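User: I'm writing a tutorial on reading structure tokens. Could you give me a worked example: one chain, its sequence, then its tokens, then a sentence or two explaining what the tokens reveal?
Assistant: Sure. Here is the example chain.
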Amino acid sequence: MAKTSESPPVLQPLVVSRVFPAPRELVFQAWSSAEHLRRWFCPAGYSVPEALVEFRVGGAFDICMRSPEGLDHWTRGRYTEIVPHTRLAIDMHAVAELDRPLFRAYTIVSLADEPGGTRLEVTQSYTILDPAAAPMIQGAPQGWSQTLDRLGHEVARIQKSLPASRSVVHATFCIERAYPASTAQVFKALTDPAAKAKWFAGGNGYTLLARQMDVRPGGREHVKGRWESGVVTTFDAVYHDVVPDERIVYSYEMHLDDRKISVSLATFELKPAGTGTHLVMTEQGAFLDGYDDAGSRERGSNFLLDALGDSLK
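And here are its predicted structure tokens:
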């Protein structure tokens, strides 16, 4: 009886994600050239001595990862989709000597704005082409965790290398929310340290380092935290006008590490709406010295006001 050929096994996709305290454009840039990828596209202890990257649909994505023992592991791939600052798809194949295929790893990279920066999600779908390659795939979660650590360092390096040209870009936005809570309850969520800590915080991968809050005219607020990439963000505010249950006006600075990226004036207005509260937030921002906000402050504020609403339930 003739033997029937078996299809290569297809494994469950691997999904990993990380939040980087940087604009999407910078995180996307780290995937766009051999210069960047040589610095980060490998696990801890490995290096990338060779890379051929043609950043276009159909272009090459060929990476050599060298192990601590000096063994070279090649990935041969092609970019199959490029949506600037939002999405990449790369058809990767891990190969052995003479480009003998070991497994296929179809890789989708998605980027989205997140409070404090950019959420990157990597989805890899595997097809084993050589049974001996199975242990390599089993180690993929740890390998990707270490690789994204290195990506964080590269993104931080790109940020620090940006030209120090002096510039100011202004932006204004207004956000409205209706909350099923009294103005007193909403005012407390905005001004009480314990209540505000429930919603005014970073997302996954964020570690709080310091928090102080004193809401009164002349009072200050300070929130500092570190992201998984190692970058530290700092929020420093001064309150100028506080009318209980009605209005809060404050100004604040934002820093990435030691770099001041913005100065803003923000106002919260609270008005009764039936048994609930109509909140209006207005912010006028000055973004400094080449920092490209690209609307992320407004998106982040929307996220935080949704979290405020959840904290009132």
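What the tokens reveal: The radius of gyration is 24 Å. Residues 206 and 227 are 5 Å apart (CA to CA).
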